[in-house]
Fold each of these.
Amino acid sequence: MSAPVVDIWGPISPEPRVATPTAPDPHDEWPLNGGTAWVYYSPLNRRQLVRPVILSDGFSNGTSELDTLWHGLEENGDYRFISELHATGRDVIILGYNDRTAPIKDNAETAIDCIRRALAERVGRAKLVVGGFSMGGLVTRYALAKMEQDPSLPDHETAVHLSYDSPHQGAWLPVSLQAFVHFAADNFSDDPVVGDSLRLFSGLLNSPAAKQMARWYIAKADDTPAPAAERVAFLRELEELGGWPRNLRRIGVANGVDTGNGNGIQPDATAVRGNGLTLTDTWLKTQAQGDQVVARLQKKDGEPFPVHTSGLPEIDGAPGGLFTLPLPDGTDPGSFGLIGLLMLGLRNVVDKDRIPTSCFIPSISAVAAGEIADQQALYKPITPDASELDAFVCASRNEPHTTMTEELGAWIVNEIVSSS
């Protein structure tokens, strides 16, 4: 089973995960302000940094893990991205963070520190390639834009910014999922089986980075879904920096299709339902347009609580990168499936007929080609002139978020080589 580069749900899974092999020792390791950079020189460059490519980690819980990142980039079973870059004489710098849930601006400072170190260590004058996976594309986008606007910072000397399934127009965290997590954390955070997972999940959804990334956010189950104040402030600050770095080529890829064809998930369908020792007829539905009850939450012997939305698009089924949580038994619970695991851990019976996953990063967000709140834009074919990127490519199928494939990876390598 292919492993994602950014393992979003991994640290909060109530089920054991696939053991990740140990990454090879880096040739160099740079302690950074707020993170770490692991340097792998191309065999063609004799342990010198000649043509640096900085690849940033994205959003997840806790500290970046080199083993997970290396596995997703190089041992994913489809395309050896690092080896292919090395074969072109590119040196790979994997950028990780002490706290992947920190505000984007904070981790952007770590990215700037990494860029400065790369420029100082570089032999020759080859320009850099800087980018990242998932939120890492946003972090590096902000960092490079700031370096262009802040006169106290050096020239970033970067030729290409790349983003891999990054939420340029926001990410989708199902409102029903958010509501269940808030409800479960309030009622079962001391549970001996899944209490730790619930506390971690709640903290992840309520973290600064999640609030900045999510297009719709609720702080509690009865909130009205809307952009968090943190997201509004971040977008304003990004716009003040010009929105994008300008003195380079912007490229990106999506793990979803550009044809407008969705992933097959129907709106207003019951995604997961649990009933048993701790829950009574508790269910989550996929998102539909118009006024909708997206979840019914009820603690055993408690009062039922309906969760309402209004005016949202049918986004669970939209084309785009999918939530993923690969397990050792070959299953992938995704997003709604993760809720099912938590319901089971709370000693309930979960309906077998359920929808495991949903769209996470709509294709139009990953390639900056439209507003994800727009139902028509979500399901409309993406044309090159619609994107804010200079070049992009979308996957030929809707696949798990940040899955490295030959289709996408080879396109990036070709773009890097042709831009230098």
Amino acid sequence: MTLSAYEQREWDRLQKRKAESLNKQSRNLLPQQARDRLASLGQKAMSTPGADKVAAAYGGAAKGLGRVVGDTAGRTVSRKRVVEQYRRTGHEIAGLHEIRELDLRVVDEVARHNLVRYGHALSAAATGLGSAAAVTGGEVLASAGTVAGAGAGAAPGLGTVAGAMLADTAMMLALATRTVASTALSYGYCPSDPEEEIFVMSVIALGMATGTSAKTAAYRELSQLTQLLARNAPWAKLNEKVLTKIAQAFAAQFTQQLTKKKLGQFVPIAGMAVGAGLSYRHIDRIAVSARDAYRERFLIDKSGGDLTGNPNYGAADPAQDDDAIGVIELLREEDALPTSAPSDSEDQPDN
């Protein structure tokens, strides 16, 4: 299908934005000296007697968080509601699959990206503010940076930290997933399908990446997944059990990354502002990544797979950057990455 002038222009803009993102240095809310200080204080807190309880809580939480991706994707804005939204604007479509037959200009207008982006980002800021306040109330650190209490007496404060941070992580993962899932539905993709859940995780991974190597690896993964989905590659090995294991591993890596990025919450004075700001920023990045990823995929599908994202991502490897979450690698570990020839089967209409 031939792209409209608007669609071709937006494709070019998407490729330009991607190139600029890879060349852009990540910005931090705090100067390096302050970040080093926060990291040091966080390390002191985690070496306090009783901190092993925090570590154990995080380890066990990964399994519980693992299904957040699928559950949130399945319960987010319904397909029927999205279809009705298009019908109310004068587009008589039968199901999600017909959204991808519309012009991108129409879809952009109906999708209301800014509402999704800023609504979820503000919710994240409120979540970050609340968890930081709870951490402050735990009095794990005194304002001078010394460890408050000693021995068993430190455990209750650390328990407060663990509970607040785990609740924050669960909410952030749910918000991230809902942000991406809402965008997916608006562009005609059902995020509760198993292979679509993998794409959702990959989009979140891109939004969490800040280093150049991590972003390069994330873009390359999205490009690979987009091509597999565009060719209707078979996902026969992606059953419920395998998908659950992948989601759990993804949640564990998401938890680790989020915790590292939000160590500032361990500081009573700076923690609340830093926690709210970082939460807002993470979800905002994920929202922007989702919009760009689904718009690019929309155009690739509409072109019949003729369009491709920038293939020159080099040899970036997620292992080279601890800021990366490698979703493709998780698929390989479970032997669930499609390797056979693309399927010729047609997509079935969905209502």
Amino acid sequence: MDSLRRWEAAGKINAIRTPSGQRRFDMNSYVPGDKPDTKASSKKVKTTDDESTLRQIAKGIVQYAQQMQKLKLFPYPVVLQLGVEKLQAICVMQNKTQPQGIPDFLSNWAEHPIRDWTIEIDCPEEWKDVQFVEDQKPSGFCIELDGSYINEAERIQKEVMEEVFRKSAQDPNLYVDFRRLLVTNSVITKGERDIKAVLQLKPLQKVLEDSYEEAPASYKKQGKFYCCGHCGGLMHRTVDNQLKCENKHCAKQKKAAVPFECDKDDQVLWLKKGLRYFIHRPGCAELRIEKRMSELGLEVILYPDFDKYDLHIVFPDKTVWAVDVKFWESAYNLAKKVNEPIPRLTYQPYHEAFFVFADDIREYGDEYIQEFINHCPVKLKKSQIMFEETFLKAVEKKLKTCQL
């Protein structure tokens, strides 16, 4: 009720007094915003739909996490304030307990699946089993819902592409070398990065430098950084001083943490958040598949024609398969991002195209695949969508038919 009274005072919501003196609020008159607007508040404006509200909250949580890294705890991001206020309005409309401000939301709501909230939320069913915050950090779902880190990754990709096109006559493999470096070196010393920039990727030196930032000193345990035994990413310390990979799916592999060895005078760097999430994570699966194709004796090209797709596989009978590898927490969010079929190469068009999901999320099962198909604007056959292990079996089966 305190929130409603503040909104009334700010001109965000209309209220009347009953003969007994009690307030009655008109929720259809709620108008989000920082300042009163008498014209706007006189209109009957419906609250923003639930999905939009959740996206706004996700954006606010990501912005707040970025603030916290710089030790700027206050003020809370405006977008987070507005998102929580809209959530409070939903609670009032359903006569349910509401979060008592942002701190209460972050500690008692965001760390629980949406399904466990006190209210009914109109959103994709798969969203209801995830949470916005994990280990006091934005969850993978939250990052995908926000989308800002996708923009960061795409910006750096664009800068790389521009440099590659200018220098491609000198070295057509420049782009592949750059992507491979990011995937295999999500953690690196400044000295090693600078050496690689000069000796291997000189034309991309500036963009390579922009791809990394200093690793947080708080991630050290007993004076050392540790990397995940599965994906190689930098591990952080939990509240009980245990080491944990940023990618929560790596815990299933039960691989021991690896101490990151470096000179005490050197600086430890790690990939920027967007690149860790949208380049390194799927990249691990891309390189796994590439390695397996090579072991099977197949011709395989990584990121063909400047990343038209991820893997170009040629079988002995000259059949060509194109593969786009994906690693998203939410099949719904991924489906909305895929807005065109996998493009064809002019010099060697594929016969079959596949979207392959990293085995790290295989536990999501057939429901994940069906959710992706249901919401993807591109018309797809179920035989085109599969997890990594299933795809490898399909390759082996196809290869056997070629050898008959």
Amino acid sequence: MKKYTMNEINLKQFIFTIYKTQIGIGVLSLPRDLAETAGTDGWLALVLGWLLAVLFSVIIIKVMEKHPNDSLFDLFPKVFGRWLGGLFTLLWILYTAFSATIAMISSIHIIQVWILPNAKEYVLMPLFIIPVYMATKQGVRVIGRFAEFVFLFTLWMPMILFLTLQESNWLNLFPIGQKGWMPILTTVKATVLSFLGFEVAFMLYPFLQDKKSAVKGVFIANTMSMLIFMLITICSYVRFSQDVIMEYVYPTLNLLKLIRLPILERFEIIFLPFYLFILFMTVIPYLYMSVFGISRMLGKPDHRPYLRLIILGWLVMPFFFTPSFSEITGLGKLWGNVGLCAAVLFPIFLWVYQGIFRKLRKGALR
């Protein structure tokens, strides 16, 4: 019997939720992150990162297929037992809550730097919280519908990047492999970090109506993300030299500054308010996963009281902690390292452990 019938999502909502979770903060600094180690060959590392992201996403689906009607938090006690399963549940709650918090702080910081430099964090935080809270409190079905809306609402954004190709220099991409393959391979870690967000498949899978299409769904979602990353990276490389890219914190936004329209100069000022919807779609799935985990751990059917506690913490936080740019960067790197463990190492561990656990249980029954 399905536990989550009332909150089911279709395949499109499954795809768009993963895709929009991946396309968030990291895409703004991605060209610079790749250029640091691989130079203008960073786009090659994107292909390798995409292959790994698809592989790890499929492993997540294979893990969840063994218990199709259980969430990740239902799975932990069954596989690891009450106490160890409770520990893993707590760790995932902390990871997803931390991810949502860093995504929220980073979003506010970007708006402050590029649009509202005099606005205080305690003023912006409540404004950002309203749409995040309204979507998260309704559950996975509304989050999936919001992901569909955001996809359609922002569909024009990748197309606008083609306007930046005027006066571009395609010779910046050559020679391919100029530094050898080792810098490209070492850059794969940065590309996998850009694809973080596919681990929300752990949360979405039990709500998916057609679970047989889950593998196809994660493949499409990661491929869509890869195409966006590739477009942004190549546009940045052919428009800027490597040295210029290294001077920018967010090369994607500097790329948008080059767009000149007859009635508009600072196009990035118009772009960023629309991009907020994409940033919210990074915050919301992680936030929901954390409060959903708390409700499952405590055996409560309603996640909204715990959502309000986290929201209250976010409202109070600006009065006690206003991170600088270097602190936000450090927290972002920490998020990436923890995310690698949660999205890459943990699915492999769970997949192997689950296989061993099933074999031992079959042996005991004999």
